[in-house]
Design goal:
With about 260 residues, this protein is α/β, with parallel strands linked by helices. The protein contains eleven helices and eight strands. The protein has a single domain, classed as Alpha-Beta Barrel (TIM Barrel), CATH 3.20.20. The structure holds 3-methyl-2-oxobutanoic acid and sodium ion. One of its GO terms (molecular function) is magnesium ion binding.
């Protein structure tokens, strides 16, 4: 049965861990979906496989193009699409327009946007009222890389209290889940206990309701990966070996 955002809330209540990964095309999405991933995020972290240095340059058009391919590969998982930098921060109407395009043009079921400050909470509330499911994202928010860097967030008492309040505000605005990125595990635990909606952690310890990783990190396809990523296989090595073998076989006229 297809996963819904209500299902994720039920799984939290039942203590059933939620499994999320990112995808950027049909082939990857199909494999992840068939392997039992519950939530597939078309994350703007796909910047890494498109050759961008940060997530900032990605356009809404690019996100929609990739989300359509991902959606075609998914039968069961909930598909969530990141709204890219400066396609939702300007105004509620800009956010409505961008999120509306994503849902209408890709067939994805939800959008994710970064930040839990008051204006963003208001935006989330308005999107939800309009029928657009929203996943929040607090802690390290990579679209703010030039302000925050990529450091762990929430290390001081003040910062950790602010992140907790942001997560609570996003829940009250109607978000169906919230990503907690690169924050101390103790803070992630506290947020997870205080919220009714599920927390999906990345670099936030083992006590979140679910976990998400960037698939290009998991598969060893990325040139670099953050310290909290677990690399389960090394596709860069495997692809290099396969292609080098092909190159030499063709040159030596061993293949075909
Ligand atoms: O873009 C992305 O992959 C994300 C996850 C790290 C949550 O936002
Ligand atoms: Na993202």
């Amino acid at each position: 049965m297809a996963v819904t955002n209500q299902q994720l809330i039920q799984w939290k209540q039942q203590g059933r861990a939620i499994v999320a990964l990112t995808a950027w095309d049909y082939a990857i999405a199909q494999l992840l979906d068939a392997a039992g991933v519950d939530l597939i995020l078309v994350g703007d972290s796909m910047a890494a496989v498109l050759g961008y240095e940060t997530t900032l340059p990605i356009s809404l058009e690019e996100m929609i193009y990739h989300a359509k391919a991902v959606r075609r590969g998914v039968k069961r998982a909930l598909v969530v699409v990141d709204l890219p930098f400066l396609t939702y921060q300007e105004s509620i109407s800009q956010a409505m327009h961008s999120a509306g395009r994503v849902l209408k043009e890709t067939g994805a079921q939800a959008v994710k946007l970064e930040g839990g400050y008051p204006a963003m909470v208001e935006t989330v509330g308005r999107l939800v009222q309009a029928g657009i499911p929203v996943m929040g994202h607090v802690g390290l928010t990579p679209q703010s890389v030039h302000q925050l860097g990529l450091r762990q967030q929430g290390k001081t008492q003040e910062a950790s209290e602010r992140i907790l309040q942001e997560a609570i505000a996003l829940e009250q605005a109607g978000a169906f889940a919230v990503v907690l990125e690169h924050i101390p595990s103790q803070l992630a635990l506290e947020i997870t206990q205080k919220l009714r909606i599920p927390t999906i952690g990345i670099g936030a310890g083992g006590d979140c309701d679910g976990q998400v990783l960037v698939t290009s990190d998991v598969l060893g396809l990325a040139e670099r990966h953050p310290p909290f990523a677990k690399v389960y296989t090394n596709l860069r090595e495997q692809i290099t070996t396969a292609v080098a073998t092909y190159v030499s076989e063709v040159k030596e006229r061993k293949f075909p």
